[in-house]
């Protein structure tokens, strides 16, 4: 892993503008690429140092703090420094190399063919032209174009395109005084009626400029009218930069709420820590519906009074819209929003508003933790236990750890909020590493929903083979008759979990990954949820040719279909990855449900937390055991959290709520304690299990993943790694493996892994990195991929 940089010469022309944090174009080997200036010094030991080619920034893209954060992340998460720094800026600021074709005017063009002449003339007319566009235009002449480049008739130019451009709008500016304007209107001919309308619009509205699009729509005119007025010198076209605001057409309102005594006590403790000398993180443990969001809002009001900025993180994009509604309603344009469903341009404009200091409150999912604020006073991580706060691609960082680093840097307050805190966070609170704040009751004396467990084995015994227990069916009927709303949760998407032949037992699997394909009924395809491989719905078994193909398991599409059959006329909104892939889909679906345009909201994890609907009085969990079956030491914790969170969607307002949890293992402690809203008992029981197995929070973990197309190669590499690491580390470090990964093959690559259990010591990670470097150097196998996951959340 490379955690440091390269030395380059700063040309005299760049000395006045080049600063730490600027993006630059630099040569690297035989190519040129984008880099970041992380240090400026007066001397170097490097001989024949190459010069920087170009500075891309007037204002540095990275602050001093973000450079330091990147360096820490690179070391702690064992990731390349450049990869980390790139992640800290919007995608739109990552330059892209384009290849252009031009005609070489210095080469004699004697004895060329008619086709070559045609290509030369077309390029001369359109140059510089992208190579890809030229090849598309002359798709049958790829070989000829390559020859023309080889012999110099055409030349190839490589250039970097900075995608971080601002959006500009055309405005029309009046170049006449009022007196001249009256005269010109009077002198226009009768045929120039549209031109007269344009000039009269400026006169009657007493304006000097107007956007081109506004004028064209209001007066129903075309561009030729405008061009005529520009030619006459009456108007000029000017370009103005404008921000892309994803919420510009929305009107937000939110009222300040009087806090309960419990909320007031919590708020006072948070606010009293502002400007403290050394601040420990706060863990706000509040049951669902206890009013944590209002505490967040009023904490931010106090931070604003100090002139400082706040970052608020939510785990799901589906929660962003609800948070944005409340925060924009309270704080207006001071709020900036960053999440993955915004366009590149929208994200860039929000990022620039933060960079300029125009936005003081940043709301978003995981990546919002890197917002370039300069005076951070408060970080809030809502639903802090959520696994989505851990990134599963390199660098495999956890938001909570990054937030701790940034809070320490700024001496800011960090608040971790959850109804079901992670085992690690609650353990830290119990051991005085965090301040613990408790909200054990719902606001306004509202009761927690009544939870009923249904043993699906009993349903089978009495002949009920549907996915809905008798209890759940009766309660759905009751709510539909009362015109109340229902949330149904299933932790799967698609139609069926897997497809199997009843004749020979063959299960349809992905040819590239060791996992069964999921059936999607809408377009009748089987899809791999790891690599995206799709195949049409089979009519016959590929193994034995039998027609006895059956769909097993239950997916969200299948539940939707069954609901419509069983409850005629029911209106269902389905929310899963398939229905929310389009931009704005989350907001539209949730807004529709809020307006009671549907009776049932059916979905996966994205509906399980944070959502607040007044008329939801019933929550149904179709299959509570899904997570329990995973080979993961956090399976019980995740099950408890998910059941508690989804149950908390019921009865949050004046109507009381019921929850029905369908399960095949009602005796499991995570399900039992969730049904009784008993976090403390679950925590104690789970802590015993973790202590017995030496898992977090008692020890730290590193998982090292190996992958290769050839099975012998990955086995050899993983075994050599374990042998060498055992030689380097102390005896109290435990190395498990290497073993085949739970999913043994993804995208045609065989996967092995080993787990390292250790105490909180940086030397272990250093030795892991040292061993990997020795292994890569010794094997010299470019197809071998090794990745390190520090504090892993998923062991698949």
From TrEMBL:
An example Gene Ontology molecular-function term: zinc ion binding
Any one cellular-component term (Gene Ontology): primosome complex
InterPro entries according to UniProt: DEAD/DEAH_box_helicase_dom, Helicase_ATP-bd, Helicase_C-like, P-loop_NTPase, PriA, PriA_3primeBD, PriA_3primeBD_sf, PriA_C
Keyword Metal-binding: yes
Signal sequence segment: none
One GO term of the biological process aspect: double-strand break repair
Protein family (similarity comment): Belongs to the helicase family. PriA subfamily.
UniProt xrefs under NCBIfam families: priA, PRK05580.1-3
PANTHER family: PRIMOSOMAL PROTEIN N
Listed name of the protein: Replication restart protein PriA
Species: Vulcanibacillus modesticaldus
Lineage of the species this protein comes from: Bacteria, Bacillati, Bacillota, Bacilli, Bacillales
């Amino acid at each position: 892993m490379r955690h440091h940089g390269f030395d380059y010469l700063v040309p005299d022309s760049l000395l006045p503008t080049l600063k730490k944090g600027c993006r630059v174009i630099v040569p690297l080997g035989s190519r040129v690429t984008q880099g970041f200036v992380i240090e400026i010094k007066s001397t170097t030991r490097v001989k024949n140092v190459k010069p920087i080619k170009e500075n891309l920034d007037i204002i540095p893209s990275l602050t001093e703090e973000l450079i330091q954060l990147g360096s820490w992340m690179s070391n702690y998460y064992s990731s390349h420094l450049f990869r980390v720094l790139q992640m800290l800026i919007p995608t739109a600021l990552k330059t892209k190399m384009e290849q252009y074709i031009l005609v070489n005017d210095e080469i004699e063009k004697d004895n060329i063919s008619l086709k070559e002449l045609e290509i030369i003339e077309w390029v001369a007319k359109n140059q510089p032209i992208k190579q890809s566009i030229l090849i598309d235009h002359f798709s049958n002449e790829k070989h000829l174009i390559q020859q023309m480049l080889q012999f110099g008739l055409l030349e190839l130019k490589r250039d970097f395109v900075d995608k971080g451009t601002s959006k500009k709008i055309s405005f029309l500016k009046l170049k006449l005084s009022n007196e001249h304007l009256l005269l010109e209107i009077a002198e226009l001919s009768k045929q120039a009626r549209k031109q007269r309308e344009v000039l009269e619009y400026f006169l009657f509205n007493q304006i000097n400029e107007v956007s081109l699009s506004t004028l064209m729509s209001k007066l129903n005119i075309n561009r030729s009218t405008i061009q005529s007025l520009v030619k006459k010198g009456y108007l000029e076209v000017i370009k103005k930069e404008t921000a892309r605001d994803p919420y510009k057409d929305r009107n937000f309102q939110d009222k300040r709420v009087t806090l309960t005594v419990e909320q007031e006590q919590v708020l006072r403790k948070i606010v009293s820590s502002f400007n403290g000398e050394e601040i420990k993180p706060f863990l706000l443990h509040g049951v669902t519906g206890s009013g944590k969001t209002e505490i967040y809002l009023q904490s931010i009001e106090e931070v604003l009074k100090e002139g400082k900025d706040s970052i608020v993180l939510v785990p799901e994009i589906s929660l962003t819209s609800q948070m944005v509604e409340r925060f924009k309603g309270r704080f207006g344009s001071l709020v900036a929003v960053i999440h993955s469903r915004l366009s590149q341009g929208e994200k860039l404009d929000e990022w620039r508003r933060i960079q300029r200091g125009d936005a003081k409150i940043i709301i978003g999912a995981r990546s919002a933790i890197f917002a370039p604020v300069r005076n951070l006073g408060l970080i809030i991580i809502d639903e802090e236990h959520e696994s989505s706060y851990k990134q599963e691609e390199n660098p495999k960082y956890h938001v909570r750890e990054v937030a701790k680093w940034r809070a320490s840097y700024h001496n800011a307050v960090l608040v971790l909020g959850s109804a079901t805190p992670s085992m690690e966070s609650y353990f830290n609170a119990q051991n005085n590493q965090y301040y613990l704040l408790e909200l054990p009751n719902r606001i306004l004396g509202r009761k927690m929903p009544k939870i009923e467990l249904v043993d699906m084995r009993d349903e089978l015994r009495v002949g009920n083979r549907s996915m809905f227990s008798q209890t759940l069916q009766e309660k759905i009927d009751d709510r539909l008759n009362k015109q109340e709303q229902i949330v149904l949760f299933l932790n799967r998407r698609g139609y069926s979990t897997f497809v199997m032949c009843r004749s020979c037992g063959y299960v349809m699997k992905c040819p590239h990954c060791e996992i069964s394909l999921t059936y999607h009924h809408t377009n009748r395809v089987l899809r791999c949820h790891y690599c995206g491989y799709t195949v049409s719905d089979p009519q016959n078994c590929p193994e034995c040719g039998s027609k006895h193909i059956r769909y097993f398991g239950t997916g969200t599409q299948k539940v939707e279909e069954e609901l419509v059959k069983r409850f005629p006329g029911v209106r269902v909104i389905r929310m899963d990855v398939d229905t929310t892939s389009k931009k704005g889909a989350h907001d539209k679906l949730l807004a529709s449900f809020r307006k009671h345009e549907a009776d049932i909201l059916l979905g996966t994890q994205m509906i399980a937390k944070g959502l607040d609907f007044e008329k939801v009085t019933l929550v149904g969990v179709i299959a509570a055991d899904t997570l329990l079956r995973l080979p993961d030491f956090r399976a019980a914790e995740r099950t408890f959290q998910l059941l508690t969170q989804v149950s908390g969607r019921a009865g949050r307002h004046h109507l009381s709520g019921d929850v029905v949890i369908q399960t095949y293992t009602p005796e499991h402690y995570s399900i039992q304690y969730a049904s009784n809203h008993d976090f403390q008992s679950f925590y104690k029981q789970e802590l015993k299990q973790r202590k017995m197995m030496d898992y977090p929070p008692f020890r730290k973990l590193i998982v090292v993943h190996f992958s290769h197309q050839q099975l012998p190669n990955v086995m050899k590499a993983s075994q050599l790694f374990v042998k060498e690491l055992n030689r380097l580390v102390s005896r109290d470090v435990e190395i498990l493996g290497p073993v085949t990964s739970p999913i043994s093959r993804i995208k045609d690559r065989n996967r092995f892994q080993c787990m390292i259990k250790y105490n909180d010591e940086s030397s272990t990670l250093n030795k892991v990195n040292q061993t990997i470097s020795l292994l890569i150097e010794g094997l010299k196998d470019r197809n071998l991929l090794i990745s390190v996951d520090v504090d892993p959340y998923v062991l698949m």
